[in-house]
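Moderator note: this is an archived Q&A kept for reference. The question asked for a predicted structure of one protein chain; the sequence and the answer are reproduced below.
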Amino acid sequence: VQLQASGGGLVQAGGSLRLSCAASGLTFSRYNMGWFRQAPGKEREFVGAIKWSAGDTYYADSLKGRFTISGDNAKNTVYLQMNSLKPEDTAVYYCAAAPRSSWPLTVRSSYNYWGQGTLVTVSS
């Protein structure tokens, strides 16, 4: 199983980025997908997740309205659209896959597979 995250980079505050996570080696529709992030010196934290069966999305309260998760089952890819970025959004962003029965999707322990992370740096 491989989760390949991409799309990170340097952006000015107020800008946007879209991260992608391409999955291979697993049956995509049997997993729910999540995004987490880890800033320097901090714990890895939940960003958002998508539950394919119901098309439901979940977000960290502090990120609602700025971040949007979507996916393309045909491409085995999940996306994280990040708008109105702030310096405090600077972190390594990780995508992860959780078996369909895992719950809640807000905790790291629900996820079996993790990507390598992509760095997002937001300058002020």
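Archived answer notes: The mean pLDDT is 95.
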